[in-house]
User: Which sequence fits this backbone?
DNA sequence: TAAACTAGTTTATAATATAAACCAAATTAA
DNA sequence: TTAATTTGGTTTATATTATAAACTAGTTTA
């Protein structure tokens, strides 16, 4: 996994978003606020970063009268998420060598 | 695990340092540069942060004619490191719920 | 029609990461 | 012997990032 990608995912808010999208495949802006416990402004920025990196796809539409932002994980997002945890393992396994 | 601590460990360089100290119990500044692949300035700052948080203990002495900075993980550091990975699990387990 | 709410985005500021510059002393080379 | 280089760091300047606050644009309610 490349450095850029690791840096992107080494952030609680982005990792929570991606982690959640891994399970549900699609979620609203509102839901992501709830899941990540971050502010709206923060979520807005982090969604954009994940989108720019191609890890999620964002679709904006209207639900009734209100705007609705829907986020979906991409296949790149899925493999990146998995790779990230594989790379984390190398930190953790030190524990067993104590 | 509290928010401050999580934030402190949600950083590749600091996590690598702590992770390594978990295995060896004591390491030099030089060794930590090698392990973390970060610059001297960066390591210097991150060591201070880990020390301020009480996760590592730093001892400065002379080895022959040269200064030598030795870092050692504290018991708080050990439990923090373990707790951090336990909390990460909650992100990762989403994968299985797909 | 004014107040409050929804669903966001933008922006200002504070915090952080990092490289670069620096320091003090030791070593080596000229 | 003195100038250049190396060691083992620290400090600082700058760029990046995170975040809250302010804002946008429209909707609903009273």
Assistant:
């Amino acid at each position: 996994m490349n450095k850029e990608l690791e840096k992107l995912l080494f952030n609680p808010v982005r990792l929570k978003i991606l982690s959640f999208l891994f399970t549900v495949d699609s979620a609203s802006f509102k839901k992501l606020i709830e899941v990540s416990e971050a502010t709206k402004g923060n979520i807005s920025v982090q969604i954009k970063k994940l989108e720019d990196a191609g890890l999620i796809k964002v679709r904006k539409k209207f639900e009734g009268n209100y705007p609705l932002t829907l986020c979906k994980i991409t296949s790149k997002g899925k493999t990146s998420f998995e790779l990230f945890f594989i790379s984390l393992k190398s930190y953790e396994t030190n524990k067993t060598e104590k």
